[in-house]
Design goal:
Layout lengths: L2 H25 L5 H10 L2 H10 L3 H5 L4 H24 L2 H8 L2 H12 L6 H17 L6 H5 L5 H27 L5 H17 L11 H24 L5 H4 L6 H13 L5 H30 L9
Helix pairs in contact: 1-12, 1-14, 2-5, 2-11, 2-12, 3-11, 3-12, 5-10, 5-11, 6-10, 6-14, 7-10, 8-15, 11-12
Length: about 300
């Protein structure tokens, strides 16, 4: 297992996704969500075609033995994209990102149940610790006084629900991606995902698209380009490590959400966010340390299957 390479690719993809989220929220003020989904998916195909043509892998992108598998992943992706963008339109960047971090916990559970991956106790512990960190960040939002005072608007409630739906959809997408990597090439996985989501976004055309201004049009195209690049990198990361190993590193996206929310939207995190981020970072570092230690032990001793730790 090439852990360092897998983690590096994962972190790069998360940074690209963070910049994409900022643009999505900005464009969402004037453009319908279906139109944003279309641009996100259609222009994501551009880097896919360019990169894989340059690498001589475009034929591999068109070739597939599991069209229904791609359709299932694309359907989950469309649902996750619509719900995620809906959350970003209605919630602060940090809050939407925090709620989305239920996804790694769901991913680990599904990895054990559906992929039959060996999920050791230390991995469960790391993901659960990260989950606790997210809950600490959300403590202010659980205060009853906030709701009694009417601070929780209909939009924020809808946004929170959409973020939860997105977390479940994203976990399912990760699992389906892992399944497809057993038989399908990375170009094929990325290409058909983008194609399916493009069609899904295009189907919303009759519901009222708008003519975007030049700056918004550039933002929409950039959303797609960043999404395509991040998707390529993300899919590659799952070739070098299991979904359950990489799941805790999803929490590092919170750091980018803090910084971008602060610089772009003037959203300053409170003390709960700082405490939670320390817990989340510690969980990720523990996975790296434990995985390396386990690798050293396996190099020294070859005594059959490793025990559950």
């Amino acid at each position: 297992m090439h852990l360092f390479k897998a983690v590096s690719l994962k972190l790069i993809s998360l940074l690209l996704f963070a910049f994409m989220s900022v643009l999505v929220r900005t464009a969402g003020d004037t453009v319908p969500i279906g139109q944003v989904v279309f641009f996100r998916s259609a222009f994501a195909i551009v880097p896919v075609v360019l990169i894989y043509t340059w690498r001589g892998e475009m034929r591999a992108a068109m070739r597939t033995s599991r069209p229904l598998g791609h359709l299932g992943r694309g359907t989950l992706g469309i649902a996750g994209m619509f719900s995620n963008f809906s959350a970003l339109f209605r919630l602060p960047l940090v809050e939407a990102t925090a709620i989305s971090f239920l996804s790694p916990l769901i991913t680990v559970a599904l990895s054990a149940l559906l992929l039959k991956e060996r999920v050791r106790i230390y991995r469960w512990s790391a993901v659960l610790a990260g989950f606790v960190g997210v809950m600490v960040m959300l403590v202010p939002h659980f205060e009853p006084a906030r709701y009694v005072a009417g601070a929780a608007t209909t939009a924020s409630v809808i946004g929170a629900i959409c973020a939860l739906i997105s977390a479940f959809c994203n976990a399912g997408t990760v699992i389906q991606t892992r399944r497809l990597t057993f038989t399908e090439s990375t170009p094929s996985i990325v290409f058909y995902f983008s194609l399916t989501c493009t069609i899904g976004g295009l189907l919303t055309l009759p519901f009222g698209w708008v003519m975007p201004s030049p700056p918004v049009l550039i933002a929409l195209m950039s959303i797609g380009l960043l999404g395509g690049l991040s998707h390529i990198v993300l899919t590659e990361s799952y070739r070098f490590a299991s979904a359950s190993v990489l799941a805790p590193f999803d929490y590092t996206a919170m750091l980018w959400a803090f910084l971008l929310g602060w610089f772009v939207f003037s959203e300053l995190p409170d003390m709960y966010v700082y405490i939670g981020s320390v817990i989340v970072a510690g969980a990720g570092l523990f996975v790296i340390w434990r995985e390396r230690k386990l690798g050293v032990e396996h190099d020294k001793f070859d005594e059959g299957p490793p025990v559950v730790t």
